[in-house]
């Protein structure tokens, strides 16, 4: 699939087939989940990156590659190298301009926009008139841990659009259980904060610091839990 093959290369290869490398000529080749690539294939990718040539399966003719490559993975490739499942020379060859995208639980401010984007997509695909997300549904989503990351959010929105029959998406349409923290905070459906400042001490920054300290104390100084409580990302606590 990556390099393509020639006719007769193996049983069932009744014609030449172009691979991703050929189709990406002059453009960009994107390889997702590079950390799952078999060890047997990694030397070929390394050669492609270093020499800009490759061979189709069943052929000994070198083909020149002309494209840039972008890879993605959810794995820690450095740890994979230590475990022997990923070549370190390939890791260093790929690790030229790394971009780290935090997991969804650490950038909760993106959840409303992502949810709306997925909702628009499913509106078109399903041909439904979907009003959107209720405030309660969004609040519940903001407290979820999202172990499945953005894929889990997408699947959740798709499920909700199927079971709502065109109604506003509410908490009961989501396959989510309220977290212990959300239960604690919403027990009386109210949050009351009392701060005491002198006129000299009072400022917006001082109030923000007090709110952050309150959230940390409320969540036993767990930054992720405190971020969920304030419906923000962990960046606030650094």
Outline the structure in words.
This protein is mainly α and 238 residues long. It folds into 3 domains: 20-95, no CATH class; 108-173; 204-236. It has 10 helices and 6 strands; from the N terminus they run E-E-H-E-H-E-E-E-H-H-H-H-H-H-H-H. The strands form 3 sheets. It has a two-stranded antiparallel ribbon. Strand 4 (53-55) and strand 5 form a beta hairpin. Helix 5 (111-126) packs across helix 7 (149-163) and helix 9 (204-218) packs across helix 10. The longest helix is centred in the middle third of the chain and has 16 residues, at 111-126. The chain starts with a strand and ends in a 9-residue tail after the last helix. Mean pLDDT is 85; it is low at 180-188.
For the largest beta sheet, what order do the strands appear in spatially? 1-2
Nearest-integer average pLDDT: 85
Rg value: 25 Å
Number of strands: 6
Quickly give the structural class. Answer: mainly alpha
Return the domain count: 3
β-sheet strand percentage: 5-15%
Taking the alpha carbons of the first and last residues, their distance comes to 44 Å
Shape: elongated
């Amino acid at each position: 699939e990556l390099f393509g093959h020639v006719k007769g290369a193996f049983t069932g290869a009744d014609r030449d087939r172009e691979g991703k490398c050929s189709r990406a000529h002059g453009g960009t080749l994107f390889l997702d989940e590079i950390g799952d690539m078999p060890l047997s294939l990694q030397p070929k990718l390394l050669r492609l990156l270093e020499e800009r040539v490759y061979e189709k399966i069943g052929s000994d003719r070198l083909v020149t590659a002309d494209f840039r490559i972008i890879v993605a993975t959810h794995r820690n490739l450095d740890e994979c190298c230590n475990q022997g499942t990923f070549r370190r020379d390939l890791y260093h060859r790929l690790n030229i301009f790394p971009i780290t995208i935090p997991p969804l639980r650490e950038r909760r401010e993106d959840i409303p926009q992502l949810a709306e984007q997925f909702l628009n997509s499913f509106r078109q695909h399903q041909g439904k008139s979907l009003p959107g997300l209720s405030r309660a549904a969004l609040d519940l989503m903001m407290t979820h841990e999202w172990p499945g990351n953005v894929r889990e959010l997408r699947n959740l929105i798709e499920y909700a659009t199927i079971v709502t029959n065109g109604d506003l998406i509410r908490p009961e349409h989501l396959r989510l259980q309220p977290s212990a923290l959300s239960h604690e905070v919403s027990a009386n459906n109210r949050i009351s904060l009392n701060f005491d400042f002198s006129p000299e001490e009072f400022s917006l920054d001082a109030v923000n610091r007090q709110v952050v300290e309150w959230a940390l104390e409320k969540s036993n100084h767990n930054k992720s839990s405190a971020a969920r409580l304030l419906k923000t990302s962990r960046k606030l606590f650094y």
